[in-house]
Write a structure and sequence with these properties.
22% strand; 20 strands; Chloramphenicol Acetyltransferase; single chain; 8-stranded mixed β-sheet; 26% helix; OB fold (Dihydrolipoamide Acetyltransferase, E2P); 4-stranded antiparallel β-sheet; globular; alpha+beta
Length: 464
């Protein structure tokens, strides 16, 4: 840094060891804006996650060298910042004495207020906050995460709407078939203009089964940009983000290189349902997180992999590499992509520990705080497709792993037991496998072991 008016270069940081570049998604500051150290100056996108780049110092935003949409290599200069001390006192004093709203025209202020960062939107969605009620302290009245956190501390958690003042266009229609988590009464979709209202106080909220990461909130819909609207054109265009491009590349590589095979087994999870219903409320009070079916499934899968370690491997042309650590990737659907955060050393965790890991990854996904380290190192993937009602699926393997397992929806069915018909809670387990490494016999035995582990849960099973 310099105090004599010289500019300080800001380079694209090394967000993770494997990161070589990132794409500038949006500049949050423009030349001439006053910025504080650690305040986000831009949003960047990588193949895995989005992130905000913070300022390295207090000062004035200078020249922007990397325009929005440009892919920048690690270490490349993206902008310059003038040190705070280089601002002349006669110009600095008036800025400090005037409210933020007087520094910019009203139209610019409204524009800045409507520009919510992903972190702000995620935090608002998690706590059910109407961002129009939050006072912004950023440039032009822009709302920051600090503003939202302060609003929460002051007791402004649940959103309330006055019907007479709400324009008709601001209402958000309910999405057919969408489920609401019993852990949170708010599950609306946040946009820069509105949030979905919560039910009136006193309204009973149905206790919908929460079976994994997907039901922490309603799925968000990608923004669709209409080209030539009103001119008779019928096409809609959606920009391909770096994350979507990476998904397309990885899926194509997986399907083209890995000879997929597929098998399925049916599991009686009646005892598991009873066990979870018995423990979930006490676990929530004690740990502060949800006890989901996914935690039990992960434990069953981990124990099965211990018995069949070849499932925890990948193809290396002239050899098969079997990984010692069991790092479970969780396929998580987000607004416009599928992310696979990883539970590291899952074999060293009990059911309670796995439940905490699931909750932590869910929180970081909602808030957009997943790091590249969270996404790397997976050795076997589990996908909880049953959380959105699926009963049968054929998953694509998470390259370069050897297999992926989906846990389908739990459905009550009539089942023949000892020549008598009984109503049981049943679920399907679907496994896609790399047929270069795995064959039907070993995968059949693996699935049978997972089935035995799930059906082996009793009312005496311990979480710790």
């Amino acid at each position: 840094m310099s105090d004599n008016g010289k500019m300080t270069d800001v380079a694209m940081p090394q967000l993770a060891e494997s990161l070589v570049s990132a794409t500038i998604a949006k500049w949050l500051k423009k030349p001439g804006d006053r910025i504080e150290q650690y305040e986000p100056i831009c949003e960047v996108m990588t193949d895995k996650v989005n992130a905000e780049i913070p300022s390295t110092m207090d000062g004035i935003m200078g020249e922007i060298l990397a325009e929005e949409g440009r892919t920048v290599s690690v270490g490349e200069i993206i902008c310059r910042i003038r040190a705070e001390a280089s601002v002349a006192p006669e110009t600095a004093a008036p800025v400090q004495s005037r409210p933020v709203s007087s520094q910019v025209p009203a139209a610019v202020g409204e524009l800045m207020r409507a520009r919510y960062s992903p972190a702000v939107q995620s935090l608002a969605a998690e706590h059910g906050i109407d961002l129009s009620r939050v006072t912004g302290t950023g440039m032009g009245g822009r709302i920051t995460r600090k503003d939202v956190l302060m609003f929460i501390e002051q007791g402004g958690t649940q959103t309330t709407f006055a019907a007479p003042s709400a324009p008709a266009s601001s209402s958000v229609p309910a999405q057919p078939g969408a489920s609401v988590s019993s852990a949170s009464p708010f599950a609306g979709t946040v946009t820069p203009q509105r949030v979905e209202p919560t039910p009136p106080l006193g309204t009973a909220i149905p206790d919908v089964r929460h079976s994994g990461l997907h039901l922490t909130e309603l799925p968000k819909i990608p923004t669709i940009e209409v080209e030539g609207e009103g001119t008779g054109r019928t096409e809609h265009y959606i920009d391909v983000t770096p994350i979507r491009s990476a998904i397309a590349r990885n899926m194509r590589q997986s399907v083209s290189e890995i000879p997929h095979a597929w098998t399925m087994i049916e599991v009686d999870v009646t005892n598991l349902v009873l066990l979870r219903n018995k423990l979930k409320d006490e676990f929530k009070r004690k740990e502060g997180v949800n006890l989901t079916y996914l935690a039990f499934l992960l434990k069953a899968v981990v124990n099965a992999i211990k018995d069949y370690p070849i499932m925890n491997s990948f193809w290396a042309v002239d050899k098969i590499v079997v990984k010692r650590d069991i790092n479970l990737s969780l396929a998580v659907g987000t607004e416009d992509s599928v992310l696979t955060p990883v539970i590291k050393r899952a074999d060293q965790k009990n059911i309670a520990g796995l439940a905490r890991e699931v909750e932590e990854l869910a929180r970081k996904t909602r808030e957009g705080k997943l790091t590249l380290d969270d996404m790397q190192g997976g050795t076997f993937t589990v996908n909880n497709t049953g959380s959105f009602g699926s009963i049968l699926s054929y998953p694509i393997i998470n390259y370069p792993q050897a297999a992926i397992l989906t846990f389908e929806s739990i459905v009550k069915k009539p089942v023949v037991i000892n020549d008598m018909i009984a109503v049981r809670s049943m679920a399907n387990l679907c496994l896609s496998l790399d047929h270069r490494i795995l064959d039907g016999v070993i995968c059949g035995r693996f699935l049978q072991r997972v089935k035995d582990n799930l059906e082996g849960f009793t009312m005496d099973t311990k979480l710790y």
